[in-house]
Amino acid sequence: MSDLPMALLDLDAAGLDPTQPAPPEFIQFLYDNSRAGYLTLWSHVLALPDGPSLIQRWINDALAVYYTRSLRTQMAPPGDKPAGDNVTEVTYSGPVAPPAPVCIDTPYVGGSASIGGGLTCTMGNWGNEPTSYAYQWQSNGVDVGDGTSQYIVVDIDAGHDIVCVVTATNAGGSTAAPPSNVITIPGVAADASARTTSRSRSAHDSRGDDTAVSRAAPKERTTSRDA
């Protein structure tokens, strides 16, 4: 091994993050620079407990692509980077991370706008290949819902405008789409005290509880009088 030339790649200087999936261009770079000698990968991540396994995963990704070919790779130990007459540092010029998602078509909300009805928000159409989506519902500008693509309309939403904001994420960052179309819930908006009480009951049907009994009409009073 020592008689072969060594090409050294400083992952830190190249801006490559071993905690992220290996870019396809890196896998090609790995093969191109390991044919004539050894390509040695160096990074401060190697000093972390799971650092070597993270970088080894990148090597395994390359081996999965070039399983019929020969790869000469090794990892430099933590500490000073290898140096010497037999070591040539190479430069990786491929992309470091994909650009953040770009919203092409705004998410759309559809469903039942009545109290107790369900609304559903689409993810919209995105560029730059998002890997995950987050949903935030708003009722008259106030955050509501449980973070999923569906929302159940509750009584305090009466008279309110419902929208959904979708945020898409990939390794390059996160982007929030413009708010969806507006769904107006018919009815009269509840006051602040009613909103607090009704929100706490939004997941339950209270028609059969003790409160319903207490709201029954009072019994007629009878008074006895002496003749």
What does this structure look like?
It is rod-shaped and about 85 Å long. Helices cover 19% and strands 27% of the residues. Helix 2 (24-32) crosses helix 3. Strand 2, helix 3 and strand 3 form a beta-alpha-beta unit. The chain folds into two domains: 6-90, no CATH class; 102-194, Immunoglobulins (Immunoglobulin-like, Sandwich), CATH 2.60.40.10. The longest helix has 15 residues, at 51-65. Strands 9, 10, 12, 13 and 14 form a five-stranded antiparallel β-sheet that branches. A four-stranded parallel β-sheet has the order 3-2-1-4. The protein is α+β, with helices and mostly antiparallel strands and 227 residues long.
Highlighted features:
single chain, 227 residues, alpha+beta, Immunoglobulin-like, 2 domains, 4-stranded parallel beta sheet, 5 helices, 14 strands, disordered C terminus
